[in-house]
Structure formats: C-alpha cells, structure tokens
Amino acid sequence: MSTLTTPAAGTESPRPGRAGRIPPLVRIAVRQYWIPLLVAALLLARPAATVIYHYGGWADAETLRAHVGAKAYHWGTYIDGAYNKTAKLMSDGSEIAFRPALYAALLSGVLTAREWESRRVVLALTQSISPRRWFTVRWATLAAALVVLVTPAVAAFRVSAAHAFDLNLLTFGAERQNAYFTIGPVTVAYVVLGVAAGALTGTLLRRTWATLIAAPALTWLAACLLVRSRAVILADPWIFSEVHGFHMGGVLGLMFWDALPQDAYLTNSLTPGDYWGYQIAYSILVLALAALLVHAALRALRRRVA
After folding, report:
1. Which domain of life is it from (predicted)?
2. How many other C-beta atoms are found inside a 10 Å radius of the C-beta of residue 258?
3. Which end of the chain is more exposed for a tag (fewer CB within 10 A), N or C?
4. Residues near 281 by Cβ (< 8 Å), separated by ≥ 6?
C-alpha cells in the first residue's frame, strides 16, 4: 500500500508565475529602463497617431478626384489635391523614417555610458555575472522594447502609403517612390542598428556627453555607408540593371528624407513588386552591420574588464 504524504502548511513550493518566466537580468533592465522607454513610447506614439488620423483624408482625396477629374486633382492647387496630400504624407513619414533609430542610439549610448560612470557594472561583476552577459541582456532588452514601440508607427504609415499609392492619389516622381518604398521592415532594422551603435560608442567612450553626439553620428554614418555603397543591389540582383548613376547632390552624394540618407536613382527604379525583396534585403544588411557593431562593442568590453 502506498503512503501519500501531504506537505505541511506553509511549505508548498511556489508556483511559477509571470515573474518566474522572465530572466532576472531582463527584469533588472526593465526596472531601470522604464522611464526612458516611457519617453520613447510618447515620442513614437505621436507620429503613429498622426498617420492614423490623416488616413481618413484619402477618402476626401478620392471625392475631390471624382468631382474635378484626375488631371485637375494631380495638377491643381486643391487642399485635398495630390500635392498637398503627398506633402502631408511625407511630413508624417519624416518622423518615422530615421528618427526612431537616432532615439535608439541616444538611449543605448547614454544608458551604456551611465553603467560605467555610475560604476554599476562593477557592482554587477561582484555578483559573479560576466560583463558580456550583463551588457548583452541589457542591449537586447532595450532593442526588443524599442522594436515593439516603433512597429505600430511603421505599420500605420505603410498601410496609409500603400493605400494612396494603389489608388493613384500621390504625385508622380521621387516623393511617390519614397513614400511607398522607404518605410517598412528596414525602419525597424535601423532601430536595432541604433542600439548597436549606442552600445559601441557607450562602451568605448564611457562618458555621457560624448556619447550623446557619437552614438547618433555613428548610426547616421553607418546608414550613409550602406546607402552609398549600394550593397543592397548585390542582395537584390534583379534591380541591378535598372539603376544607372549616382545622385551627385547633398552630403556624400546622397539625398535625404529628413535625416534618412537615400539613393534617388535606386528608389526611382523600383516597381511595386520590388517592395518586399528590397525591404528584406536591406533589412538583412542593416542587421548584419548591427551585429558587427555589437561584436566590436563586446571586444572592447572584454579589453576594458581584462
């Protein structure tokens, strides 16, 4: 006969709850980062709300076109005409295209530099936590949180731009191409690049004020390098023969949408069927560069704590 034993009152093993499913280092990072992440959420919520609010204006544009005709809609000076609607869409997109990546670089760089300035990392190392694990978890947590925050704004803009493009409500030319092809998965990848750039500059400089300048500057220069090199054409070979020449104006021979560097010849050569191939190829390149920056940050970290 088997004997069943009942644990004494108060000795039951605790049931694993939500806290038990979250690694301790992640919980620590979230507790320390919640205020900066709240600020980032507020900064990203405004452009998302603006894009969603302006989405209803495309119905007014359709009504105007039906009333005055397609030619007058595209070439006339109406409040709901193609010029004004495209300009409004581009203005909304300027806050999404590259600014989130710069915010991510600022946050990552400053928070990393503060780890050194406050000597919090020394306290962590006394708890038998490897510096590689300590910083990797913090950077990954920050990147994941920012990706979650920026994705709704990117999705909202993509829906609005694709809707206007498909209904032929935008002006013809570079702005139309930029609105349709520029913002998407690569925008989210740029946020990860910003976190990686901040991780590297914060680790190398270990000073908050210096990192405030260096982190977004490195993010911007890395984006310029990717655009200017046209490395995406190697991953997207079917558009290789359609791109001719470089734009000679602007910094480094680039054009810009707000802070985002762009290649006008490349963007103008794309067709709607190229969107996902272009975005995925570009995202892979951006994430690969981010991985290189994180690797460099970890190597610098190893030298610092050797």
Report:
1. Bacteria
2. 14
3. N
4. 232, 235, 236
Give pLDDT, residue 127: 67
Q: At what angle do helices 275-304 and 208-229 cross, to 10 degrees?
A: 140
> Hey, CA dihedral for 174, 48, 85, 280, is it positive or negative?
positive
Which of 226-240, 243-257, 268-282 is modeled with the greatest confidence? 268-282
Report the alpha-carbon distance of residue 101 to residue 89 in Å, rounded.
20
| pLDDT cut 70: percent of the chain above it | 83
pLDDT the model gives residue 44? 87
**Is the confidence at residue 11, as pLDDT, over 70?**
no
At 45, list the tokens. 């919520």
Element (H, E) at 154: helix 131-166
Check residue 257 and report its DSSP letter: E
3-state secondary structure of 8: coil
3-class state of residue 262 by DSSP: strand
Residue from 198, 153, 184, 223 nearest 33 by CA? 198
Length of the chain: 306
CA–CA distance, 100 with 186 (Å, rounded to integer): 12
Residue 274 confidence (pLDDT) above 90: no
Rg over alpha carbons for the chain, rounded to the nearest Å, is: 24
d(CA 123, CA 181): 47
**Sequential DSSP letters for 178-195:** HHHHSSSHHHHHHHHHHH
Arithmetic mean of pLDDT, 64-80:
84
Mark residue 207 as left, alpha or beta (left: phi above 0; alpha: psi -120 to 50; beta: remaining).
Answer: beta
Dihedral sign (CA 195, 199, 201, 202): positive
- Provide the pLDDT for residue 301: 86
Tokens encoding 146: 């920012």
Residues 197, 222: Cα–Cα separation, whole Å = 9
Q: Rounded to whole angstroms, how far apart are CA atoms 11 and 88?
A: 64
